[in-house]
Predict the 3D structure of the following.
Amino acid sequence: MRTIVAALLIALSLGQAAAEESKIRVGAIDAYLTVPPNIDKPPVALLIAGSGSTDHDGNGPKLKPATLKKLSDELVARNIATLRYDKRGAGGWKKEFGNPADFRFKDFVDDAASLVDYLRGSGKFSKLAVVGHSEGGLVAILTARRVPLDRLVLLATSARKQGDLLKAQLEKQLPPEKLEPIEKAIDAIMAGQIVDPPPAGLEIAPVMQPSIASAFNEDPIDTLQKVDIPTLVIAGGGDVHRAGLDFLPLTAADFDAKSLWLPDMNHVLVDVTDEADDVASYNQADRPLD
């Protein structure tokens, strides 16, 4: 029996090793294409990371859960190719991206759309899905309105504008006297005003506020209602950032969407038992996905 098990493990490890990963560049975007072995024209999933300076593995400067790397590994093991990429700002701001103050949220959508065009143009894949995690879900929704896709998958995605989501998150963390000036500043930025100086706790430089406003004002529900492709919405009860408050409106925005609620899954897509376990999971790259 042990000989049989050993042989199976060797076979599995050889199969995993045979997956082909290559680094590509599309415009100024560095991306990593992973293709399962011995599959002619597999489906492919473009994986879009969440907020912050997040790289192709789903890691940032401080938090390193490797969410996208683990997701890619699982998909490739199921004969689905993946393309994951470094977001603008990951590893530093490239001069090709221009002045950071001129960035607008649509630039994230431009990047995703250009990668979709690359995958379509390659002729190597059958169906093409875009999978967005957290803020990447908003990018995925907007991309689905921009370019033709076969599937849309939203993982731990907010149904609210990011400005409203930030206010809701801060409400849980701050006393009313500190929260009030921050809420007023967020509302002003969303309205296109410049707040100078910004209040304590919202250190957004005036020169960057138009950039932030472009992200704060995107409405995921309004856009999702206009998307007409098969959609899957997945969220978890252990996610302190995106509660059922977001899951239900997303599913209601597309009555044909499939949905999956995982009671123990947190924001980085692993099962957790309590708050301490949740915090620890953000730096546990080897922790398996739900």
